[in-house]
Every structure is written in C-alpha cells, then in structure tokens.
Write a structure and sequence with these properties.
Largest sheet: 6 strands, mixed
Strand content: 5-15%
Shape: globular
Oligomer: single chain
Length: 314
C-alpha cells in the first residue's frame, strides 16, 4: 500500500533547508489570526513547565501565538526548542544530503524511478536533473517540501521566532537535541531503504498532483484547528505501518525521539526544579500514544492541555 509522506517532518524535525532568516519578533495577538494552541502544562510538586506544539512553517497564521502561549512564555525562565538553528544549519543539512564526490542518484535508483522523478520535477517547472546529486533521503525531503513553499518562503519559522524572543527577553535558551541527532533521523535507513521511501513518497506526490490536493494543506488546517486526535489520525493514515520500512522510519523520526526528549526534559527539570521552562517541539511529538507527554506522565508528572484564551475573553 502506497503512503509515506515527507510532510510529517514538518511536525517532527526542526532543521530544514530553509534559512532561519532575520530577527523578526513574534507576531502580536490579533483576532483575525487567532487559533487554538497545542499547549500543555506540566507540573510535579513545585516544578512547572509547558509543552508547546509547533509547526515548522513561517506563514503568519502558524506563527501567530495565542494569548495562553504568550502567558506561558512570559512566565517561563527558559525556552527549549528541538534544535538550535544557526545561519549555517541549512548548509550542514545540504552537505549531509549530497552524494559522495563522483557519485549521483543515477547509481542507486532504477531507471524507472529516475524517469518518474525527472518527470515530476519537470511538471513542477524544475530542471529534471536538478536533484541527481543528492542522496535519496534528501531528494525525498526536497520534493516533499515543494507544496510547503508558500508556507515557508517568507519570514521566520515559529521555532526560530521563539529563540529570538527568549534571547531578546534575556531568558535562557536551549535545545533538546543536536543537529547531528536530527540529521541521523533525517537520513534514517540503508541506501535501499531510502530509495524505497523515496519511491513511495514520489508516487504519493504524483497522485496528489493529479487530484489537485495536498497533504500539506490538510495538515496545516488541522494544526490551526488545534485538533490533536484528528492530526494524529491523519498522520497515521499517511503511513503504512504494515510496511516494515515505513514503520521503522516512523519509529526513528518520532517514537525513539519521543522517549529521548522526555528523558531529557525530565533530567532538565530535576537539575533546575526552580526554573519554569517552555519546551517547544513539532506537534506530532505531543499527540497520539507514546507522546512526550505520556512519557512524562509515566515519570510522575501531571500533564494537562491548556485551554485556549480567545482575545475577547481577556
């Protein structure tokens, strides 16, 4: 069964090929941009923290923060995102995704897959061979981001805005993962497994193009609606867990990292119990079974969804 969508990375991995941009401030609250937030309060004794689900886009609706998020950020002593992006982060990802010198995609994929890829790129008004110098996982990331370009082309990603805000407010800023750890998740699998994932993702994008719909638009709509159950259900509908390679891929980019993230949050709160901290990660880390929040509950924390505060209620 075809599935496997690289758009899932928009909710799972913070680093991307897009520039982290300038030092824009987080947008002020306004009714026309208002939407529910994926925000949870975490407590254990006198220790408190928040989990904030993000989407790694730059468009104003996504980067708008609800009043409840502003309140959490104001009350926090520190903000931690998935990874600390720098002006060179995109270059590091690009370098890691490039085939070794003297090699190209033509040496690792079948002529049939290469022809499908070239045809798809041409249909998107891109040079047919423009991605031939990349590793299969990077090709999948590149074509998976094409439909997200309208939401990633301008401004600053939400995660980076949070970093700038923390620094401007004189608060501690940190990251729960390293760029190398995120790169290992991005480049999961053997060359054969990466080619398998690329083939499935390409087929899905070709199908979506024919049907004139995109998974990216759907996931953005679910994020703005604040519906965690629907978001998780859609993510699972986009992944064929009966395919052992897709199952292992999802486990690598999500489940294993959820466990590690929760352990590092726990260690941070044990070391600094008096520091209220906002942990802002891609939203898929906070919904569904085996989420970061569920792991924290197993460690004795109370994790409660924070109600949205509409502007007129303040």
């Amino acid at each position: 069964m075809m599935r496997a969508s690289y758009w899932i990375l928009a909710f799972c991995l913070a680093i991307s090929l897009s520039s982290c941009g300038g030092k824009e401030k987080v947008l002020a609250s306004s009714a026309n941009l208002d939407h529910p937030s994926f925000l949870w309060k975490v407590t254990k004794g006198d220790t408190q923290a928040w989990l904030f689900g993000t989407m790694h886009f730059t468009d104003p609706e996504v980067t708008h923060l609800g009043l409840e998020v502003h309140q959490a950020l104001d009350a926090a002593d520190a903000v931690f995102t998935e990874v600390e992006e720098t002006p060179t982060s995109g270059a590091r990802v690009s370098q890691a995704g490039t085939m070794p010198k003297g090699e190209s995609l033509t040496s690792v994929v079948s002529p049939e897959l290469l022809a499908r890829l070239h045809g798809y790129l041409e249909s998107r008004n891109l040079p047919a061979t423009s991605l031939d110098h990349l590793r299969p996982w990077m090709v999948g990331l590149q074509i998976g981001q094409l439909d997200a370009i309208p939401y990633m082309s301008h401004g600053v990603k939400l995660d980076v805005q949070l970093m700038h805000r923390a620094k401007q407010d004189g608060k501690e800023f940190g990251a729960i993962e390293t760029i190398d750890e995120q790169l290992r998740a991005l480049s999961f699998g053997s060359m054969e497994e990466q080619v398998h994932m690329l083939s499935i993702s390409l087929d899905k994008l070709i199908q979506e193009q024919a049907e004139e719909l995109t998974s990216v638009a759907k996931l953005r709509k679910l994020y703005l609606a604040g519906d965690g159950e629907a978001l998780w259900a859609f993510a699972m509908s986009e992944t064929d867990l009966d395919d052992p390679i897709q199952n292992a891929w999802l486990n690598a980019i999500l489940q294993e990292r959820n466990t590690r993230m929760a352990q590092r949050i726990h260690a941070r709160l044990l070391e600094h119990p008096d520091k209220a901290t906002v942990f802002a990660f891609g939203t898929l880390h906070f919904v569904g079974p085996n989420s970061v929040g569920e792991h924290l509950k197993s460690l004795g924390y109370s994790v409660t969804r924070v109600e949205h505060i509409a502007p007129k209620e303040l």
